[in-house]
Each structure stands twice: as C-alpha cells, then as structure tokens.
Amino acid sequence: MKKTVISVLAAMLCVLGLGVSCTKTTGDGKVLNIYAFNTEFKERFDSYCAKNIPSDIQVNWVITPTTDSAYQKKLDEALLRQAKTPADKKIDIFLVEADYALKYVDSDFTLDVFKDIGLSEADVAQQYKYTKDVMTDANGSLKGLSWQATPGGFVYRRSIAKDVLGTDDPDEVGKALSDWDKFDAVAAKAKAKGYFMLSGYTDDFRAFSDNMSTPWVVDDKIMIDPQITKWIEQTKRYTELGYNNRAGLWSPESSKGMTKTGKVFGYFGPAWFIDFVMAPNSLEDPNGEKKFGNGSYGDWAFCKGPQSYSWGGTWICGAKGSDNIALIKDILYTVCCDEDTMTRLAMEKGDFTNNISAMEKVAASDYKNDFLGGQNHILFFLESAKSVDRSCISMYDLGMAEKLQGAMSDYFNNIVTEEKAWENFYRSIKETYPNLSK
C-alpha cells in the first residue's frame, strides 16, 4: 500500500534543518549502538549474532521501556542529534513496533535495506509479505526487517479446557472456539464452572482491531470500524456477565491468571506473547527449571480461535549516519533472512519466524513446545500468517488503541455512559492529535 502519511520526524527535520544525507554510508566504527525497548532482540542477538561480531567492536545497548512513550521520546531525541553526534555515539540500529513503525519508515532516518545496506530481493524472498509492506515507504523503499511474523491465536489452559469441554486436544478445542458465537457459548460454560473466559477488557482487542477494513484515520478524519464496535459490545457483555476478570492486559491481576491457581480459560496472543509473557508468569519458581509441574508451565495449549489476526511485531532498522553498515547487513541477514537461523529461532525460542520455508519445515517436524504441553503450535500459525493484511496500518494506531481502551474502561465499569466514553475518547484524541477531527 502506498503510504501518504508525512511522519512527524520528517517534518521536524525540515523545520530544524537536521536532515541526514541520503547518500550511502560506509565505514567501520568501533562501537555498535543499538536502541531497543526491551530485551527480546538482545536475547536473540546474543544467541545468534554476537559470535560473529569482531572482538574489537563494542556493542552498546540503549534499552528504554515503552511506558508513556519513553522509548520513542529518547529515540527521537537521539535521531534528531544524529547528524551532529560523534561517530561512535551515533545510532546504528534501532527497533520499532508495528503500531508506530510508519513514523520512522516515512522519514530520512532509516536506511534502505537494498540500496543502503546491501541486502538483495532474494535475501528477503521467503519473508511474509505483510512484514515487508509495513516497512515500505511511499517511494517503495524497504526500511527495515523483522525476524518474526506475529499471527495470533488463543492460548488456553489445558486443565480448564478438560473441565469445561471434556478435552484439551487443540483440534477439538479449536472446533469449539472456531467462531464468536461458539466462543460465547464456551464462555458461559466456563463461568458456570467458576472460570473466567478472558482475563480482562483488552485481551481480545487485537483479534478485532487487526481485522478492520478501514484505517483509524482517513484524510485527518477519525474512522471507527465495525470491528471496534463489535469489541465494545462484546466486552461490555462479558464484563456484565462475569466472563472476564476485569483485569488490564499488563496488570498483576492479568498475570495471576497465568499462574497455577489462575482461573482464566485463555489468552489471545502470538508466539512472542507465549514466550515473553505467559511462560515466565506461569512459573511458580521463576529460578527453577522450565518444566511441567513448575506452576502452570506445560498446562497450556494453542488453537486458532474465532478469527485470524496478528498482533505487534518488532522491526530492525539501520540508522542513517551509521558507520557500521557492514555489521548491520550481517546482523539483518543472520537474524532475519538466514533459513537455518530462522529454524533454530523457532525450535529454540518458540518464535514464529519470518521465513515461510523455515516455518513449513518446523511445522512438519517433531518439534515440541514444553510450555504448551509438547504441542507443535507452529502448525496452527501457518494459515493465519499467510492471510495477515496490514494495509490499514497508520501512524495513529498506537495512540488510537490506547485512548479508546482507556475511555471505554470507564464505560465497562459503569462509571460513565457509552456516550460519555465516546466523548472522552474524542477529546483525548484531539489533545494528542490536534489535526484530527470526527
């Protein structure tokens, strides 16, 4: 999809005169500066890339949490100084998420994967199309790569499924949850048994929002897709009927539902959510062995759920001004293009990686995920991954989702009417994005 959005960063560059030259940069700097928002990429870098970094190169990680947009603020400040920053302090690599990727894709701060970094079309041929679409600017330049594809599904508690449905088999549970009407019926059965179908209000938000047919913003006008109203209607009903535990997605209450004593039937999420969120929270002894019997570890399984969707994703961008282009190329190829690495990432880390042939190979193998009770969950992701369409992505996605969820939480809790919740939503959006209107 051709993107016509002018990024905030690009506009700032023009005003401040801090643009970075678009000519290809070469060099062999001695410090590799990587900006990230968590340790997920660092763990993968350490496992698959670090051994190939020359011994005289210092790798400097600048990791800033995403809370209150702290990561973006720090990254933006550094990028705006990039042209005047000493070589060994310049950003070489930075990571972005799907919700705000366009802000950097449509700017002069990101290197062209082909023209500037030197990878080829053949190198990325096995990557899922949507992961490249997200990082392609209005001129057709590919500005970043991801090691992961992020199709999502429903991660359910095996013991609870047996109690509610009489089976924990992924195929059978998948059939019982294959559309929203069936999902609602199981939620009622779970409630009758003393369980919550979902942990909280926003657990299934992405299953709806990723299926929008209209972007959040068109020509500076806010658009509310029918998928969003469906989510609001369902969540209000689930809250009133006690089908959810009224927990915020990242709250301690949500995490408790993943523990041995948790009463939550399941969570919506992609592979990174399983590995990075659920598995750690399931352990009764966080320092103990990751095996069945340590908390709820191993008492989980995965199925597709009511509808296909994707959630999130992390992309690696090379920064204009870097003097480590050769290193950036090697890192991107190793962790995002090499089929052997992609296969190992899936089998060793549980990632659904951004390589079609690698994922088909793992899906057909005897791979077993211990957290999921020995299930080869990669097989369930294949169909969804090929159907992911991010053509509705916009630079407003993160802000819109957060403001909507915040405004509607008061409605779900009967603090305000739905009409008032919408009024609060539009007001908060106007404060954040003055250029937008209803």
Concise structural overview:
This protein is of the alpha/beta class and 438 residues long.
Strand order of the largest sheet: 2-1-3-11
Helix percentage: 40-55%
Rounded average pLDDT? 92
Discrete helix count: 18
Descriptive notes:
It is a single chain. The chain is built from 18 helices and eleven strands. By secondary structure, the chain is an alpha/beta fold. The protein has helices spanning 8-16, 40-48, 70-80, 101-105, 129-133, 158-165, 170-176, 180-192, 205-209, 226-241, 252-256, 271-282, 325-336, 339-349, 356-363, 378-387, 397-412, 418-432, and strands at residues 31-36, 58-63, 93-97, 152-157, 198-200, 217-218, 221-222, 244-247, 266-270, 300-303, 314-318. The protein starts with 7 loop residues before the first helix and ends in a 6-residue tail after the last helix. Helices cover 40% and strands 11% of the residues. A hairpin with a 2-residue loop joins β6 and β7 (221-222). The model is unreliable at 1-26 (pLDDT under 50). A four-stranded mixed sheet has the order 2-1-3-11, with helices on one face. It has a three-stranded antiparallel sheet with strand order 9-4-10. The protein is globular, with a radius of gyration of 22 Å. α14 (339-349) crosses α15, α15 (356-363) runs antiparallel to α16 (378-387) and α17 (397-412) runs antiparallel to α18.
